[in-house]
Amino acid sequence: MLAILLTVLLAAPFGSASATAVDDSNGLTVEVTVEYSSAAEAVIARPYSQWEELPPTAMTDLGDGTYRALVVLPTFEDWTIGFEAFRADGETDLSDGATIVEMGVDPVVVGATPPAAPVEAPIVPAGGWWLIGGITFGVLALALLAWWAFGTAPAAEE
């Protein structure tokens, strides 16, 4: 009964989609299943957030119009997964995205938070100003040494 409540109905030709967290040792691995009512050459899962899109994951055809995949997510956050089906006629069908919590992953596992924005690294890391100052001082010292060596040389006799 709980599995029926923890599925999402996607727009046709996709049917219900569900997800279950299966491993948390290296990121979060989620088993995702989706129903697709037409014949397809391939179906892929596309995990994304508002900040980034992860590489797509190919799904295995279970033979009854259901496709399954293990999607590895880098963080324990509420990622959105969309589905794309490739038909034999060369056309593709895209589903709407649904979050993994909407598809059935326990909110406690992901903290029910959307993926966070990537952290911008500073142009000069902490302590980098000492390196820049040292290089500047070294160049200045070499310039003064060259000026002293060549600027104070006796005039050439004619």
Give a quick set of tags describing it:
158 residues, alpha+beta, Immunoglobulin-like, 5-stranded antiparallel beta sheet, elongated, disordered N terminus
Task: Explain what the structure shows.
The chain has 158 residues and is α+β, with helices and mostly antiparallel strands. It has a domain of 109 residues: Immunoglobulins (Immunoglobulin-like, Sandwich). It has three helices and ten strands; from the N terminus they run αββββββββββαα. Strands 1-2-3-7-6 form a five-stranded antiparallel β-sheet, with no helix packed on it. Strands 4, 5, 8, 9 and 10 form a five-stranded antiparallel β-sheet that branches. The longest helix has 24 residues. The radius of gyration is 29 Å and the shape is elongated. The N terminus is likely disordered.
Write the layout of secondary structure elements.
Elements: H1 2-5, E1 8-9, E2 14-23, E3 28-36, E4 42-48, E5 57-58, E6 60-61, E7 66-73, E8 80-86, E9 92-94, E10 98-99, H2 107-110, H3 128-151
Antiparallel strand pairs: 1-2, 2-3, 3-7, 4-5, 4-8, 6-7, 8-9, 8-10
The CATH H-level homologous superfamily of the domain at 2-110: Immunoglobulins
- CATH top level label of the domain at 2-110: Mainly Beta
Secondary structure class reads alpha+beta
Report strand order across the widest sheet. 1-2-3-7-6
Q: Examine the coordinates and then state which fold CATH places here, giving the name of the CATH topology of the domain at 2-110.
A: Immunoglobulin-like
Low-pLDDT residue intervals, each spanning 5 or more residues? 1-5
Distance between the termini: 107 Å
Please state the overall shape, judged from the principal axes of the Cα atoms. Answer: elongated
Work out the radius of gyration.
29 Å
Strand content: 25-35%
Average pLDDT level? 83
Number of helices: 3
- What composes the largest sheet? 5 strands, antiparallel
Instruction: Give a count of the beta strands, DSSP E runs of length 2 or more.
Output: 10
The helical percent reads: 10-25%
Question: Under the CATH scheme, which architecture of the domain at 2-110 would be assigned?
Answer: Sandwich
Helix-strand sequence: HEEEEEEEEEEHH
